[in-house]
Design a protein that fits this description.
It is a single chain. The longest helix has 18 residues. The chain has a 5-stranded parallel β-sheet, with helices on both faces. It is built from 11 helices and 7 strands. Helix 1 runs antiparallel to helix 2 and helix 7 crosses helix 8. The chain is α/β, with parallel strands linked by helices. It has 2 domains: about 60 residues, no CATH class; about 170 residues, P-loop containing nucleotide triphosphate hydrolases (Rossmann fold, 3-Layer(aba) Sandwich).
Length: about 280
């Protein structure tokens, strides 16, 4: 389960998602149910879709996963990586011993690994495992939440499968300090989970060299020595805005320039110096 103080947030997300499905539905007049016969109401397809995805949303899976997820998976990752991800999920579902897994990128790619994190979470829920997913920056926020600390902390420690997504995006400088409050709290959480035979999966769009720039020695050693490392390989380089427009609305592409500009171009350009204009007196 998610920590207690996240329940309200995800309940709200669930309700918003359901209202959106009903609003877009053309079968039930936005009610969520239809008449089976003169006396019986049954769930409309929009309600069935909501109920199917509700449990995923409640553990932190983002809504974007439910829209064309299979196509995005094939489009984003190499074929070899796709097969390896399937094997990884199969292995994770069979884990019984305390295990730490670090899923990272072969190259920097915004949010590619978050998609993998969501797939793992969905598969764990489908196989009726105790799982939760939390963003790295939200996890760090819990360290400072002293009023409701106990219930939240217990949930984070005791959840059998905890997926920490977006690692590397938390932007907390204390993680670079060996004896800081955040580093100590984070390492305590990881060590406690291992002692309770739990599985911790940390996911981030990081290459291994990034660890040295952002984190202290104890965290680097955790990722390098204590974690099984799974490297995600991306199939495509980042598309330009013009390439994305060409896929979505090709009729407008001719409006825009396709000129390539190298990073060195423009280096010789200097701002125009302000020239002193002689005072000619006031004009009447």
């Amino acid at each position: 389960m998610l920590p207690e103080f996240f329940k309200e947030k995800y309940f709200g997300v669930c309700q918003d998602y359901y209202e959106k499905l009903k609003k877009e539905c053309t079968k039930c007049d936005h009610l969520g149910h239809i008449m089976k016969d003169e006396q019986t109401y049954v769930d409309c397809d929009c309600t069935k879709a909501f109920l199917k995805n509700k449990e995923y949303i409640k553990i932190g899976v983002p809504l974007v996963l439910f829209n064309g997820s299979n196509g995005k998976f094939v489009e984003t990752f190499t074929k070899e990586c796709q097969e390896n991800v399937k094997l990884l999920i199969k292995m994770i579902r069979q884990l019984t011993e305390a295990t730490n897994i670090f899923i990272h990128c072969k190259e920097r790619k915004d949010y590619a690994t978050s998609f993998i994190a969501s797939l793992i979470a969905v598969n764990l829920i489908d196989s009726e495992h105790d799982a939760a997913m939390i963003k790295s920056h939200e996890l760090i926020d819990t360290f400072f939440n002293f009023e409701r600390d106990e219930k939240g902390w217990d949930s984070l420690v005791e959840t059998k499968f905890l997926i920490v997504d977006g690692f590397g995006q938390e932007n907390n400088k204390q993680l670079a300090e060996e004896e800081s409050f955040v580093t100590t709290r984070f390492m305590n959480l990881l060590n406690l989970r291992s002692s309770m035979n739990c599985i911790t999966i940390i996911v981030g769009d990081l290459i291994l060299d990034d660890l040295k720039k952002k984190y202290c020695t104890s965290l680097i050693e955790y990722f390098v020595l204590d974690c099984l490392k799974f490297e995600v390989s991306i199939d495509k380089k980042k598309q330009s805005a013009l390439e994305r427009l060409n896929e979505l609305n090709p009729e407008f592409v001719k409006l825009f320039s396709d000129k390539k500009v190298s990073s060195s171009e423009g280096e010789s350009v200097r701002p125009v110096s302000k020239q002193r204009i002689p005072n000619r007196g006031r004009t009447l």
